């Protein structure tokens, strides 16, 4: 019997249940063990002030190392690139949508200024559309992510960003009770538990966090039977892409408040990699777009990091880390 550790939010339990079902479909019995994390308990402090990386994983790491659970299930974007001593990656499930989406406030009232929501929606959904009159209207958007804040302000510098915390259910409630125009969510989180509201807008121009949309399973190093069972549900293509994205993040050595984004996708026999670094106020942005052969000897993420450093990302990251 494999004991699966998970946070107790609706989304986390859904993800762990998927792992349980996959393991059991291959003949490995499993059961869920619910653990509450400090990231779930603190709904006030912005994530970047809590030290984003690891805030949702530390309690499960401790449970793994103390042998209270056999595996832990995480949204992979929450997992630090450097795993604790004694813990290893056991598997990565096939990735869902990696997009960020804007959920509109159903109770928001448009001011009598001629603001056209339909025109603004076209700006949000079309990555080629540049800032225009609708985007200059001073809307308020909610997110706890400094990456989302930075990219939004880079595209819509006249807008205001408000912090919003909590699990997806809590954030949806807070949005409906606010005077915000909308809030930014990960598409995968809402779609997995059937909570994506009608009319939500895919922000295809917003580059995701490394490994966004992927589910990661960790286990104790040397636990051969558990690692063997998990390897059978590993999705090779997703694992290859998210490794490149996390290598990019690791190589840049960004701090917890550094808006570093990355997305690797496979097309035919090539890996297409896009990455960016944006200042939190959205005023400076450096991007990289490269294509690499699919080869275990090619460190695509590290190569892309070297490219973006050549473009001047290093001083930008250093400046942001010093300001944290």
TrEMBL record:
UniProt pathway annotation: Porphyrin-containing compound metabolism; protoporphyrin-IX biosynthesis; coproporphyrinogen-III from 5-aminolevulinate: step 2/4
One function term, GO molecular function aspect: hydroxymethylbilane synthase activity
Domain of life per record: Bacteria
E.C. number: 2.5.1.61
PROSITE patterns attached to this UniProt entry: PORPHOBILINOGEN_DEAM
Catalytic activity entry: 4 porphobilinogen + H2O = hydroxymethylbilane + 4 NH4(+)
Keywords: Porphyrin biosynthesis, Transferase
Record SUPFAM superfamilies: Periplasmic binding protein-like II, Porphobilinogen deaminase (hydroxymethylbilane synthase), C-terminal domain
Known cofactor(s): dipyrromethane
Pfam families named among the record's database cross-references: Porphobil_deam (PF01379), Porphobil_deamC (PF03900)
Residue ranges annotated for the Porphobilinogen deaminase N-terminal domain, each copy included: 2-226
GO CC terms, sorted: cytoplasm
Every Porphobilinogen deaminase C-terminal domain range: 240-309
GO biological process: heme biosynthetic process
Functional note: Tetrapolymerization of the monopyrrole PBG into the hydroxymethylbilane pre-uroporphyrinogen in several discrete steps.
The protein's assembly and partners: Monomer.
Membership in a protein family: Belongs to the HMBS family.
Name of this protein: Porphobilinogen deaminase
Source species of the chain: Niabella drilacis (strain DSM 25811 / CCM 8410 / CCUG 62505 / LMG 26954 / E90)
């Amino acid at each position: 019997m494999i004991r699966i550790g998970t946070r107790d939010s609706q989304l986390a339990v859904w993800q762990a249940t998927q792992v349980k079902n996959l393991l059991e479909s291959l003949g490995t019995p499993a059961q869920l063990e619910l653990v509450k994390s400090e990231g779930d308990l603190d709904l006030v402090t912005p994530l970047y002030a809590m030290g984003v990386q690891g805030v949702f994983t530390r309690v499960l790491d401790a449970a793994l190392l103390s042998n209270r659970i056999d595996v832990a299930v995480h949204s992979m974007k929450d997992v630090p690139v450097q795993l604790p001593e004694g813990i290893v990656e056991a598997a990565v499930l096939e990735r869902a949508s990696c997009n960020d989406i804007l959920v509109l406030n159903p109770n928001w009232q448009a001011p009598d200024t001629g603001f056209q929501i339909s025109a603004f929606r076209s700006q949000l959904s079309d990555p080629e559309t540049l800032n225009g009159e609708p985007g200059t209207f001073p809307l308020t958007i909610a997110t706890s992510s400094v990456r989302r804040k930075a990219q939004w302000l880079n595209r819509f510098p006249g807008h205001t960003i408000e912090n919003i915390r909590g699990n997806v259910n809590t954030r949806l409630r807070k949005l409906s009770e606010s005077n915000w125009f909308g809030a930014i969510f990960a598409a995968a989180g809402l779609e997995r538990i059937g909570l994506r509201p009608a009319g939500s807008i895919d922000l295809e121009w917003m580059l995701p966090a490394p490994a966004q949309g992927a589910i990661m399973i960790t286990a104790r190093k040397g636990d051969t039977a558990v690692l063997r069972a998990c390897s059978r549900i590993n999705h090779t293509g997703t694992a290859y892409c998210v490794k490149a994205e996390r290598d990019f993040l690791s190589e840049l050595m960004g701090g917890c408040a550094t808006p570093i984004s990355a997305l690797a996708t496979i097309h035919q026999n090539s890996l297409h990699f896009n990455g960016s670094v944006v200042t939190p106020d959205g005023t400076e942005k450096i991007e990289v777009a490269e294509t690499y052969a699919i080869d275990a000897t090619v460190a695509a993420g590290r190569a892309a990091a070297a490219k973006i450093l050549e473009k001047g990302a290093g001083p930008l990251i250093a400046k942001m880390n010093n300001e944290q």
